[in-house]
Structure formats: C-alpha cells, structure tokens
Amino acid sequence: MGPNFLDNAFFRNIYCNLSESDDVRCSGGGWLGDGLLPGGFEWLAFLITAILMAAILITLVLNASLVFIWAERRLLGRFQSRIGPNRWGPYGSLTPIADAVKTLFKEDIVPAAADRWVFNAAPVIMMVPSLMVLAVIPWGTGTFLADLNVGILFIIAITSLSTFAIVMAGWGSQNRYAMFGAMRAVALLISYEIPMAISLLGVLMIAGSLSLVSVVEAQNVPFILVQPLGFLVFFIASVAEINRAPFDVAEAESELGSGYHTDYSGMKFGLFINAEFTATILSSAVIVAVFLAGGRGWGFLPSQAWFILKMVPVLFFIVWTRASWPRLRIDQILSLAWKGLIILAFINVAVSAILSFIWPAPSTSELWLMAAINFGVLIVSVFAISSWFGSGPVSTPRMSHDEALPRPRPAGLSAGGDS
Amino acid sequence: MNGVEGSSVTDVAFWVVSAIAIAASIMVVTLRDIFRAALFLALSFLAVAGLYILLRAEFLAVVQILVYVGAISILIVFAIVLVRDMPGGGKDNHLKVVAATVAALLGALAIFVSYNSDFTNLDALESSNADVAAALTGTYDLDASNAVGDEYEDQIAVAPPEGAEGTEIGIFSNSTGSIGGLFIRDFVLPFEAVSVLLLAAMIGALALLRQRGEES
Fold first, then answer.
1. What is the DSSP string of A28-77?
2. CA-based nearest residue to A169, from A157, A190, A184
3. B1-87 — its CATH code?
4. Does residue A26 fall inside a structural domain?
5. From the DSSP assignment, how many helices (H) and strands (E) are in chain B?
6. A16, A36, A52 — which closes off a domain?
7. How many C-beta atoms surround the C-beta of residue A73 within 10 A?
C-alpha cells in the first residue's frame, strides 16, 4: 500500500522504529536505530502501530467523555439555576469518576424473561459505531488513523449500526417500555439519516471529495458560512441521531422509564450512557471537521489544539439546546424530519449544485460570494418552510384505540392467542 | 513496497472475513429464533462489506453497510418485532428435498461460474465495456468518458495502480468518482429508471395499505 499512515508524524515514529522499512519517509530510521523487527515483519510493525494508535485515540476520547459528562452537568446546573455537582473534587470535577466506580460495582441483573444473548450483546454493539467513527476524523494536520476517500459516507453508514444495538436492547429486554423506546428510536434514526446525508451533499459539491481530510483542506472559508443551511440541517439531524434532548424520545424518562435501557444495570447501562456521550463528542468532532475548518487556525497554536478548541462551543451548543428545549413528541419529531429538514436539505442541494456549476473550483473570494448567496437562501427558505410548517392548526394525532401503535408482544411474555 | 498490501495480513483478513460471512449465513438458515437469524443476516452483510474493502471497492463496501445493514436489515428486524406471534418461525412446509436440490444446483452453478471466469483478465472487459473496466481500476477519466479505446490500454494493463504517487488516496484506489461518473453520465437512464421503479413500489405498498373507502 501507499501507507498514508506514514504522513502522520506520530505513527511514522513508531512504525519506523519497529520495521526495517525502505519507505522514503523512514529514511532516517527511527530513534532506536533502523528497525527492531527483522525484515519481512513489516505487517507486524503495522499491526502494532495501528493497535497502539487506536488504543491511544480511544482512551483519549473515553476520557474526554468523562470530562464532558462533568461539564454538561455543571452547565445544566447553571441553566436550571442550581449548583450542579460540587462535592467530589474541585467544582465537582471528580463526580464522573465516582459515578463510573459506582456503576462498575453495581449488580449486573439480567431479567429472567430476557433473550440473554441479545441482551448482553446490545451494549457492546452500541459502543462499536461511535468508536469506529474515530478512525476517519482528522484531528489536526496529519493526525488521523485513516484517510478513507469515502470518509463522510463511512461515518453515515457506520452510525446507522447503532440502530441495531437499540433494537437488540429493546427486544432482548422483553419489556414493553424498552420495546417502545426501541421502536421510537428506529423510526427516529431512519428518518433523520436522510436529511443528515443530504445536508452534506452541498459540502461535497464544493469540496469535491468525500474524504474528511480533503474537506478540511477545501475550507478556505469555513463551510458553516458557505453552507449555513446545510449546517443547520446537519446539526439538528445529528443531535437527533445521537438521541439527545429535545429528540430523546427513545429513552424519555417521564414516559418510558428510560426506554430501551430500562432493564440494564451496572456496567452494561454504563456502556449505553458512555456510548451516548462518546457519540456526542464524535458528532461535534464531525461538525468541526466538516463545517468549522477542522484543525485550521492561526499559527500560534498546533492544529490539534485548534480542533479541540472548536469542539468546545459546538458541545456547549448541544448542551444549550438540551437545556432550553422541551422534549418533542414522536410524531412532531418525525414530521419535522420529513416535512421540514428534508425539504430544506434539498433546497440546499439545488442551490449548491447551481453555485458549484457556476464556480467549479471556487477561490476564496468566490467562496465568500457563495456564503452571501447561501445566507440569503437560508433566511428565505427557513422562513418559507416554517411558515408553511406552522400554518395549519397544531396537529394532535387522531388515533382511535385500534389504530394506535402496535404493541410489542415479545415471545416470552405472550400467553397464546392474540386479542 | 513495505506495509500491508498483498502481504499475509490481507490473506488472513480475507479468510477471517469469509469465515464470518459463511458462518453467519449458515446461522441465518439454521436458527429457529427468527430475530437472531435477522441479526446474523446483518452480520453476514457486514462481512461481505469487509470482502469489498479487501477488493479495494470501498465505495461499494460503504454503500453495502448503508443500504443492506443500515436499512434493509433494520426493516427486516422491525418487521419481525412488529409481527407479534412468531415464536420460532413458521411451520415446516415439507419442501425440504426440493429446497435442498435447488440450493445444491445454485451452489454448483456459482462454483462452476467462478471456476470458469478469468477474474484477472481485464482486457476482455475492456473490449466489451471500457468505461466499466476503467472505473474498476480507478483510471476512469471523467473528461474523456466518451473517448474509449486505445488510451485506456496502458492504464488498465498495470491495474491496480499500486503505490504510484498520486494514483491512490489512502489504502484504496479512488474509484468513487469513477462510479459517480458512470452513474450520471453513461448509465443515467437505467439509474433513473431504478428510482422510478422504487417509487412505484412505494406507492404500490401505500395503496395496498390504505383501506378501501378511507379518504385521508
């Protein structure tokens, strides 16, 4: 392969120390002389380096999610005029660690009626997509695990796997609340995947590539300015995709217990929560890479620091949304996706297609011009769609008893004939 | 060249992924629990996506995950969850012998075809459809999509373009743009016809769902 991994300084250092590679970029050898492993073991060096890099990134992100949990609870406290966690550590900063220890020591309960195998696999599968997305995010210049040339599609495809985890959790629990949560989650995730994917099309047309690294390189003007409508749709859709308020109907504590993870306890529950926070961090990372010019900034800070600095306001905005919006009803959520966001996303695609037909390879000044036009389009289309959307009477679902959502009847609970 | 391509790592990955795909497929048809069978179906789709990645068809792999795992399998699982009373699947329909015969014949056909196909020979493909051949090798030129013939020959002869500077992005040859070019230039009519077909299927499903005499 043409190991693009070697463009990454950190990776190169480890790899070149381990292997007797004749790649030009290893020409100086490593710090430890030319190769600890004998020739022909390049694959082992590759494997060790890749696993090491993945382990480092995963550890960093999981720790970041601990920090984020603390920050979110403090912020929610401020938003709700209360103090928030303040007992353990300075400003309560060790609270997430105490929570983690508590979660680990709790009893692990599997309901008697549960489908054990499915029940146990669900939290694990929940973690997988969030961690896999890690691989393609360009954390800074040359700091990425893999520069897939289908990076953005990869993210959309992989995150759709979390739907499986939720259905498995709901079905495996053999619990009606869990099943309801899972069914809502599936409806929500399938609906919001569509505007999410379409909203990125405008970005792709301007950047001319699906690779996240190229998308970052194309942003002489951050795409949040060039593609404001795309950003709006993508932001809403990704908040919905990670199941956070105001779109958290899947676990709606006040109606469903806690939805699909009602029956989970101990660290399995911890994995669900952790996956949610990891997904939040990673979706903010995707937003930074795609819309906020990734690690690009001014010279006095390394690009990785810029990336993380840009993630902070995005995460704050997500928490702010959670604190200031009530939970939407499931039918409102779905009609927002199908009647609002998808139309907005298609308007964005049409305008971007015309603009990128006029300027196939936009220069910086042309990008600013695009930004001005797109802001006009944003204002007009959002006003048009929202006035159309809100023109009718407030709809309440007309459901007689027979038309109501089908009740789940898991096999273990059903006692013979149907009603 | 250093690294992984063509080395034992890809071989090992191929055998592991194939074993997963086959094992999952066997589970799909043997398990009595239909929910788990659907989960194994998704796993086998995933493993097939892994095979596509090993074949350097990364776009196909991602679309496989997006469409088959993320959409079709989810719909199957959803249908199983909604259809309530199906403990352990349907009844035996006494067609075991017929089913086994058909399966064996189809399997034999697949083995026969794959033994008698020359997968390394891109020239044959080039003579029948140069654009597809070029797309497969990542050398499809968008600007010259109508000019087929001699100019592709040297590019195809060295397929896949291994390690040459600028021909590869990442670990994959860059075939995404080529596929896109084929979709909306050369094969735009079938591409659009398929979407009309899907729309018709959707409207048909809705028409079947709607109860007779119901207005809204």
1. T-BTTBS-SSPTT-HHHHHHHHHHHHHHHHHHHHHHHHHHHHHHHHHHHH
2. A184
3. 1.20.120.1200
4. yes
5. 10, 2
6. A52
7. 17
Write the DSSP symbol of residue A140.
Answer: B
Which chain A residues touch B71 with a CB distance below 8 Å?
160, 190
Pairwise pLDDT comparison (A144 vs B26), residue with the higher score: B26
Residue A313 lies in a domain: yes
Rg (CA), chain B: 22
Report residue B56's pLDDT band, with 50, 70 and 90 as the boundaries. confident
Tokens 């189809």 sit at which residue?
B106
CB A246 within 8 A of CB A33: no
Tally of domains within chain A: 2
Please indicate, yes or no, whether residues A33 and A181 belong to a single structural domain of this protein: no
Q: B66 and A160: CB-CB below 8 Å?
A: yes
- Please check whether residue B191 touches A, CB under 8 A: no
End-to-end C-alpha distance for chain A, whole angstroms: 61
DSSP state of B168: E
Q: Report whether pLDDT(A2) > 80.
A: no
Domain residue limits at A332: 112-388
Say if the Cβ atoms of A190 and B66 lie within 8 Å: no
Q: What is the ipTM of this complex?
A: 0.76
B164: left (phi over 0), alpha (psi -120 to 50) or beta: beta
- Structure confidence at residue A315 as a pLDDT band (50, 70, 90): very high
Residues A23 and A138 in one domain: no
Chain A residues inside the 8 Å CB shell of B74: 160, 163-164, 167, 186, 190
Q: Which of B42, B40, B50, B67 is nearest to B15 (CA)?
A: B50
pLDDT, tens digit, 9 for 90 and up, residues B117-144: 766 655 555 556 666 656 655 555 544 4
Residues A19 and A158 in one domain: no
pLDDT tens digits, one per residue of A276-289: 889 899 999 999 98
Question: What does A336-376 look like in DSSP terms, one character per residue?
Answer: IIIIIIHHHHHHHHHHHHHHHHHSSS--HHHHHHHHHHHHH
Are B58 and A414 an interchain contact pair (Cβ–Cβ within 8 Å)? no
Binary contact (B74, A167; C-beta < 8 A): yes
